[in-house]
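Quick board copy: two proteins, each given as sequence then C-alpha cells.
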Amino acid sequence: MLGGVALYVIVSVAESPGRSLFVGFYFGVVSTYALYEFRRGSGSAPIHQGAYAEQLVDELLRKSVPKGWEVRSALSFADGDIDHVLVGDRTVVMVETKSTQTNWKLTDIGLSLNGVDTTIRARKSLGRVRRLVTGGPSAGIDGQAWLVVLSPQNSVRDAQLPTVRGDVQIITCGHIADAAAALPPIVDASRVAANVARVDKLIADRRSHEHRAQARVKSETGPNQ
C-alpha cells in the first residue's frame, strides 16, 4: 500500500509540480500513521496509554492468578468504572490501573498523581465490588485493593514500590505475579461460581443498557445521521 502511495506521489509531482507540497504533506501523514500502527502492533508503542495499559494488566492477571480464581475486567457503574476484579471464594480483589508519564509521589496516605490521591478511588471501587459480590454488607468476604502504576519513564520512582498505603497495595506490572501468588487458595469452587455470576450479571446488564441507549439514539436521529 505504501509503495502505491509513493508511486502516486512521484507521478503527481512530475505532472504538476504545484501540487507537490500538498501531496508531500499527504504522504507524510499516511506514512506517520502507518508507522504508528506498526509500532503499536509490534508492542513498541508506549504502554502508558490507558486502554493498552489496562489490556496489559488484564493479560498479566489472567496468567498469574492461582488456579480457580476468575478475572473480570471493565466493569461499569453509573458513576464510574472498575478496571479489573479478581474473584475468589472468600476474597475479592479490586485492581485499579493508573498509567502516566507524569511524575507521581508517594504520600503518607496514598499515591498522588497531579495533586490527586489515586487511592481514594481504589478504596471506593473496592467497596462497590464487595457489595456487589455479597449482595449487601461485606460480611464473610475479604476485600483487597491493588493499584497498579505504569510509568515507563519513571523507573527511579518505581523503585519505591511495592508498598502499602492503608488497605491499598501499590505495585507495578513487575509485581503482579508475586501479589497473585500470595492470594489464598480456592476452597469452595461453587462459591467462586456464585460470586462470578453476580459480577457477570452486572457486566451483561450494563452492556444491555448501552445497546438500548444506542438504539434509542439511532431511532431518534434516523439511520442517515
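And the next:
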Amino acid sequence: MAMAMAMALDLALAMAMALDLALDLDLALAMALAMALAMAMAMALDLALAMAMAMAMALALAMALAMAMANMITLNLPWPPSLNRLYRTVNGRVLISKEGRQWRQRAAYCIPASARKRLDSRLKMSIHAYPPDNRRRDLDNLLKICCDLMQECDVYVDDSLIDDLHIRRGQVVEDGQIDVTIWEIADMRPLIRGKSWTGGARAGAGHLS
C-alpha cells in the first residue's frame, strides 16, 4: 500500500511539472481531478483500478503534449532597442527608426520559413526575456514589439488571435535574447476532453505572469 501511494505521488508530481510547462489551466484542472480520483481509489485499496487509471492519464497527457509540441513554434530573437529608440516622431507621425528597422531585419532573419505558417486559430504565446544587463525595464514593452513582429513575418494572421499570453524575465545574458514559443490552443484539448474543440479560450484568459 505504501509503495503504491508513493508511486501515485511520484506520478502526480511528474504530471504537475508537465502541466506547468504546458501552461494550460483547463488541462491542469482536468488532470488534477483525475489524479484525485486515482488517489482515492488507491486509498480504497482498489490498487489495480488505480494503477490502470494512472497509466491511462499518463498516456493521455503524453499524447496531448506530443500533439502540442508537433505544432509548436519556438524562436530565438535578438534583444530589441528600447521603445524610445525603436520609434521616432516626424511631423506628428510615429515612424520606426533606422535602428528599429535594423533590429526588425535581424529579428526577421531569425524566423525561418517553416515558422511562417499564417496561423489563424486561437493561440497561446510564451515569452522568456533575457536582458543584456540589469537596468530597469518594463516587460510589457516587449509584448507589442514581439506580437507585431510575429504578425509582420506571417507567423500568424493577427495578434488578436492570442488568448493566452505569458512573459517572464530570465537571467542576464550577453547582448540579450528573447525566446518566443507559440502553440495552437486546440492542440492540447480534444484528447483530454474527449470531444473536438471548435471555439477559442474563454474571454479574459490571457494574462501576464
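Board note added afterward: Confidence is low (pLDDT under 50) at residues 187-209.
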